[in-house]
UniProtKB/TrEMBL annotation:
Metallo-beta-lactamase domain location: 8-194
GO molecular function: hydrolase activity
Record flagged with keyword Transmembrane helix: no
InterPro entries noted in UniProt: Metallo-B-lactamas, RibonucZ/Hydroxyglut_hydro, UPF0173, UPF0173_UPF0282_UlaG_hydrolase
UniProt keyword list: Hydrolase
UniProt function note: Counteracts the endogenous Pycsar antiviral defense system. Phosphodiesterase that enables metal-dependent hydrolysis of host cyclic nucleotide Pycsar defense signals such as cCMP and cUMP.
Family indicated by similarity: Belongs to the UPF0173 family.
Name of a matching Pfam family: Lactamase_B_2
Catalysed reaction, written as an equation: 3',5'-cyclic CMP + H2O = CMP + H(+); 3',5'-cyclic UMP + H2O = UMP + H(+)
Key word Hydrolase present: yes
Protein name: UPF0173 metal-dependent hydrolase JFN88_21095
Top-level taxon of origin: Bacteria
């Protein structure tokens, strides 16, 4: 059985027995987060891309736990320079870890770190989504992305038990495109993420879940700090 905690925005923690990982830990500056960085206990930190609202607390959590950051290779290199253990990957690549198998999928977005001291932006490789296979379950975390046609292929090639899809619009898919994505993916359960963190991302998560139900799909609104099992 998998224990899953949603920490708000796009941050998801998944625990399988003694193994735990967190995806896109944005806690400190996340107004919806209910947990403190020092209370997060994981062996892995998995990142989809380099924007601050996804990597914000990655280094701190990794250092606190002697955990490994797993991400696109350029982003992994960036964190390795900060004295953190890392494992770099690339799109389409997969690898077996202690917690299960991880594959990086496409995401249509951008990825860069702003270096405040000289106002430069450092490119951090392509953004990604994630396919996680843990305890025989398949979890798809889309990361930040627009709608794109290969999502249909992901649904055809994988029996997806749980999908996390952004619905916030402006920076990612909005609810209309996320509904199309859910239809293509055909996940057993779809959870909307990346919305309501800030005014610019205001959306009605329950309305999105209701629209899923109208199309024969199972959805669930998960509040920040709420946990569920899979």
């Amino acid at each position: 059985m998998l224990d899953i905690i949603f920490h708000g925005h796009s941050s998801v923690q998944i625990t399988s027995g003694s193994h735990s990982l967190i995806i896109d830990p944005f806690i400190t500056h996340n107004p919806l987060a209910k947990v403190k960085v020092e209370d997060i206990k994981v062996q892995y930190v998995v990142l989809t891309h380099a924007h601050e609202d996804h990597i914000g607390d990655a280094a701190a959590i990794a250092k606190n736990n002697d955990a490994t950051i797993v991400s696109m290779v350029e982003l992994a290199n960036y964190f390795s320079w900060q004295g953190v253990k890392t494992h770099g990957m690339n799109l389409g690549g997969s690898r077996e870890f202690e917690f299960g198998r991880l594959k990086l999928t496409q995401a249509f977005h951008s990825s860069g770190v702003t270096l405040d001291q000289d106002k430069n932006i450092m490119y951090m490789g392509m953004p990604s989504g994630l396919l996680l296979t843990i305890e025989g379950k398949t979890i798809y975390h889309a990361g930040d992305t627009a709608l794109f046609g290969d999502m249909k292929m992901y649904g055809e090639l994988n029996r997806i038990d749980l999908a996390f899809l952004p619905i916030g619009d402006n920076y990612t898919m909005g609810p209309d495109d996320a509904l199309i994505a859910a239809k293509w993916l055909q996940a057993e359960l779809t959870v909307p993420v990346h919305y309501n963190t800030f005014d610019l991302l205001k959306q009605d998560g329950q309305l999105y879940v209701d629209r899923l139900a109208e199309n024969g799909l199972n959805g669930k609104v998960v509040q920040p700090g709420e946990s569920f099992t899979l």
